[in-house]
Amino acid sequence: MALKRLTKKEMDNKKQLGFLLFMSGEDQKMIAEYVGVSEKTVGNWVNDKKDNWKTKRSVSTVTRDELINKTLQAIGKMLDEALASGDKSFSSISNSLNQMANTIEKLDKKNNVVHLMASFQLFNNDLLQQMPQSKEITPDIIKLINRLQISFVNRRLSNE
Prior knowledge:
By secondary structure, this protein is mainly alpha-helical. It has seven helices and no strands. Helix content is about 75%, strand content about 0%. The protein is elongated and about 70 Å long.
Protein backbone atom coordinates (compact mmCIF):
# COMPACT_ATOMS: atom_id res chain seq x y z
CA MET A 1 0.00 0.00 0.00
CA ALA A 2 1.49 3.36 -1.05
CA LEU A 3 1.69 6.21 1.43
CA LYS A 4 -0.41 9.26 0.64
CA ARG A 5 1.73 12.29 -0.08
CA LEU A 6 0.73 15.31 2.02
CA THR A 7 -0.31 18.57 0.42
CA LYS A 8 1.73 21.69 1.18
CA LYS A 9 -1.09 22.97 3.42
CA GLU A 10 -1.24 19.69 5.36
CA MET A 11 2.52 19.74 5.85
CA ASP A 12 2.46 23.43 6.87
CA ASN A 13 -0.22 22.59 9.45
CA LYS A 14 1.90 19.76 10.83
CA LYS A 15 4.95 22.03 10.92
CA GLN A 16 3.02 24.78 12.78
CA LEU A 17 1.76 22.25 15.31
CA GLY A 18 5.30 20.89 15.64
CA PHE A 19 6.59 24.40 16.25
CA LEU A 20 4.06 25.01 19.02
CA LEU A 21 4.98 21.71 20.65
CA PHE A 22 8.70 22.52 20.32
CA MET A 23 8.18 25.95 21.88
CA SER A 24 6.34 24.32 24.79
CA GLY A 25 9.46 22.24 25.49
CA GLU A 26 8.59 18.90 23.90
CA ASP A 27 11.40 16.77 22.49
CA GLN A 28 11.70 15.95 18.80
CA LYS A 29 10.70 12.29 19.19
CA MET A 30 7.44 13.18 20.93
CA ILE A 31 6.70 15.88 18.34
CA ALA A 32 7.24 13.40 15.49
CA GLU A 33 4.89 10.87 17.07
CA TYR A 34 2.20 13.43 17.92
CA VAL A 35 2.30 15.25 14.56
CA GLY A 36 2.68 12.08 12.50
CA VAL A 37 5.98 12.75 10.72
CA SER A 38 9.43 11.22 10.98
CA GLU A 39 11.96 12.34 13.56
CA LYS A 40 14.19 13.35 10.65
CA THR A 41 11.49 15.74 9.39
CA VAL A 42 11.17 17.33 12.84
CA GLY A 43 14.97 17.56 13.03
CA ASN A 44 15.01 19.37 9.69
CA TRP A 45 12.37 21.81 10.95
CA VAL A 46 14.27 22.45 14.18
CA ASN A 47 17.63 22.96 12.44
CA ASP A 48 16.30 25.08 9.55
CA LYS A 49 18.35 28.31 9.74
CA LYS A 50 15.50 30.29 8.13
CA ASP A 51 12.94 29.44 10.86
CA ASN A 52 15.37 29.54 13.83
CA TRP A 53 13.31 27.25 16.08
CA LYS A 54 16.22 26.68 18.50
CA THR A 55 16.91 30.39 18.84
CA LYS A 56 13.24 31.19 19.36
CA ARG A 57 12.93 28.53 22.06
CA SER A 58 16.10 29.59 23.86
CA VAL A 59 15.02 33.24 23.80
CA SER A 60 11.61 32.35 25.19
CA THR A 61 13.12 30.35 28.06
CA VAL A 62 15.61 32.96 29.31
CA THR A 63 14.04 34.99 32.08
CA ARG A 64 14.38 38.70 32.64
CA ASP A 65 16.04 38.04 35.99
CA GLU A 66 18.65 35.78 34.35
CA LEU A 67 19.45 38.48 31.79
CA ILE A 68 19.76 41.15 34.47
CA ASN A 69 21.94 38.90 36.64
CA LYS A 70 24.26 38.18 33.70
CA THR A 71 24.43 41.90 32.91
CA LEU A 72 25.24 42.73 36.54
CA GLN A 73 27.93 40.03 36.60
CA ALA A 74 29.46 41.54 33.47
CA ILE A 75 29.39 44.99 35.10
CA GLY A 76 31.07 43.58 38.20
CA LYS A 77 33.80 41.99 36.09
CA MET A 78 34.36 45.25 34.18
CA LEU A 79 34.63 47.21 37.45
CA ASP A 80 37.11 44.68 38.87
CA GLU A 81 39.25 44.87 35.71
CA ALA A 82 39.17 48.69 35.73
CA LEU A 83 40.23 48.79 39.39
CA ALA A 84 42.99 46.25 38.74
CA SER A 85 44.31 48.43 35.93
CA GLY A 86 44.36 51.49 38.23
CA ASP A 87 41.34 53.25 36.67
CA LYS A 88 39.62 54.38 39.89
CA SER A 89 37.38 56.85 38.03
CA PHE A 90 36.20 54.09 35.64
CA SER A 91 36.70 56.45 32.69
CA SER A 92 37.87 53.55 30.50
CA ILE A 93 34.55 51.72 30.92
CA SER A 94 32.03 54.56 31.31
CA ASN A 95 30.48 54.02 27.86
CA SER A 96 30.11 50.29 28.45
CA LEU A 97 28.58 50.86 31.89
CA ASN A 98 26.12 53.32 30.39
CA GLN A 99 25.13 50.81 27.68
CA MET A 100 24.58 48.08 30.26
CA ALA A 101 22.48 50.37 32.44
CA ASN A 102 20.36 51.16 29.38
CA THR A 103 20.01 47.43 28.70
CA ILE A 104 18.67 46.81 32.21
CA GLU A 105 16.23 49.71 31.82
CA LYS A 106 14.95 48.27 28.51
CA LEU A 107 14.54 44.86 30.12
CA ASP A 108 12.39 46.40 32.85
CA LYS A 109 10.21 48.11 30.26
CA LYS A 110 9.77 44.88 28.34
CA ASN A 111 9.02 42.82 31.46
CA ASN A 112 5.25 43.08 31.01
CA VAL A 113 5.59 41.77 27.44
CA VAL A 114 7.51 38.76 28.77
CA HIS A 115 4.62 38.02 31.12
CA LEU A 116 2.18 38.29 28.20
CA MET A 117 4.25 35.85 26.18
CA ALA A 118 4.33 33.39 29.09
CA SER A 119 0.54 33.61 29.36
CA PHE A 120 0.17 33.09 25.62
CA GLN A 121 2.42 30.03 25.85
CA LEU A 122 0.26 28.53 28.61
CA PHE A 123 -2.85 29.25 26.53
CA ASN A 124 -1.28 27.65 23.43
CA ASN A 125 -0.30 24.56 25.43
CA ASP A 126 -3.88 24.28 26.68
CA LEU A 127 -5.19 24.51 23.10
CA LEU A 128 -2.81 21.75 22.01
CA GLN A 129 -4.04 19.52 24.84
CA GLN A 130 -7.68 20.17 23.93
CA MET A 131 -7.18 19.72 20.18
CA PRO A 132 -7.61 15.90 20.05
CA GLN A 133 -10.99 16.15 21.82
CA SER A 134 -12.34 19.28 20.14
CA LYS A 135 -13.25 19.56 16.47
CA GLU A 136 -13.36 23.36 16.86
CA ILE A 137 -9.64 23.60 17.60
CA THR A 138 -7.87 23.06 14.30
CA PRO A 139 -4.32 23.76 13.17
CA ASP A 140 -5.69 26.74 11.20
CA ILE A 141 -7.31 28.18 14.34
CA ILE A 142 -4.10 27.70 16.28
CA LYS A 143 -2.11 29.39 13.49
CA LEU A 144 -4.55 32.33 13.48
CA ILE A 145 -4.38 32.69 17.27
CA ASN A 146 -0.58 32.49 17.14
CA ARG A 147 -0.40 35.19 14.44
CA LEU A 148 -2.73 37.45 16.46
CA GLN A 149 -0.65 36.92 19.61
CA ILE A 150 2.57 37.77 17.77
CA SER A 151 0.96 40.86 16.25
CA PHE A 152 -0.25 41.97 19.68
CA VAL A 153 3.20 41.49 21.24
CA ASN A 154 4.86 43.37 18.37
CA ARG A 155 2.46 46.31 18.82
CA ARG A 156 3.19 46.35 22.55
CA LEU A 157 6.93 46.30 21.94
CA SER A 158 6.72 49.15 19.45
CA ASN A 159 4.71 51.29 21.90
CA GLU A 160 7.20 50.99 24.75
